[in-house]
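Aggregate trends can hide what the representation actually does to any particular protein. In the encoding step, the backbone of a single protein was reduced to a row of integers, each denoting a local shape. The record that follows shows the chain in one-letter code together with its fold in token form.

***
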Amino acid sequence: MLVIDDFDQIYTSLSPSCNDTARPQLLPIATDVLLKFLEDPARKLIIGFYHDWGLPLSITCRYRSVTLEEWTPEDFRHILLHYGGHQLESVDFIQVYRFARKLNAYQLKQVCNYLTDAPYSTESLLHLLETKTLISNVNTGEVLALKLSDIHGADDVIRQLEIDLITPMERPDLVHQLGIAPKRGILLYGPPGTGKTSIGRALAHRLKSKFFLIDGTVISGTSGFYDRIHDIFEKAKANAPCILFIDDSDLLFEQSEHYGLYRYLLTLLDGLESESNAAVTIFMTAMNVSSLPPALIRSGRIELWLEMQVPDLPAREKMLKTFLQDSFLKLNAAELTSLAKLTEGLTGADLKRIYTDGVNHYGYDVANQMTLRNGLAYLKDAVDKLLDNRKKVNHDRKVNMEKEKMLPHWMS
């Protein structure tokens, strides 16, 4: 008996299209050897593969196909108890299965290597799986530490995310008990600087291994673009339930050549394989919703629309107070309110810039032994500078638009 595991990977690496990595005649030679082996009726060949598409017909027409069933909580229990022993006797294996039902036997065995002598609860084993086995494509150590509670002025958005995304992700017991489920598609939209990416940062820290990211580092238009997209989604499915966070998704769809990505996402949301994709939430952010394909964001695909708005006065006060908490620029309550009123219409990103500009100006005066002013004066200067720059940008944009109107039609 001859057993060949992962035969589809061997076939792919030796296929004729891989002339740059393998000799094109190696595959027919290998196939002929296998066929000669099967000429003796007493011999048996067992081939293991993930999928059989693309395998040579000379092989597929001669085998009997046996499909292994999806794993069950009982399979998880058997493997974990076999390798983990008595330390895992009190674990609820149904919860472990719901938390990460795509884990394979090797991964379950590997996590047992990290067990200590103390008994493990369900929560402690889930934590061990999350930190040692499940791997996101985001290194949270490189992501600015942020909690959802740190994002001011977005209380309604955060509450809805807790209801429709985070609770079903973090409470697999309630998923089974009450039938709750995370939304399949979420769109977070709003002007630049209102905190959409900050929401993503906070979710990355909150959900850890359940968070996968597609952003500007996945460069559209490059030769490996779709390979990277597919690879990220396959890893997300392996860690499901999880979210696939697509930051600034409208920028990806502004160019017509990305029709393929649009079709790909449609397939993920409701295509023929939607059952296997159902545990992955597609979470998109956008500044300009009109740039997104209408069919992609219709009801039934994007189930939850959340708008990030410019912060109101109380939210701006909270943001400024947070920035100034450990700063040399000290403001009393009245000064803080006065500054917040001056920043009406500005975003959280604008407020952070005002703070850093004010601190830099203060540092310059310290370095040059100049007379120091109170904190509010430095911050007011920063507000005036930002608003002045904005006026100049708007003026230049208006001038350019007027020039375009004056161009002949064939030049515009």
Q: What stands out?
A: The mean pLDDT is 82. The longest strand covers residues 280-286. Residues 375-406 form the longest helix (32 residues). DSSP finds 18 helices and seven strands in the chain.
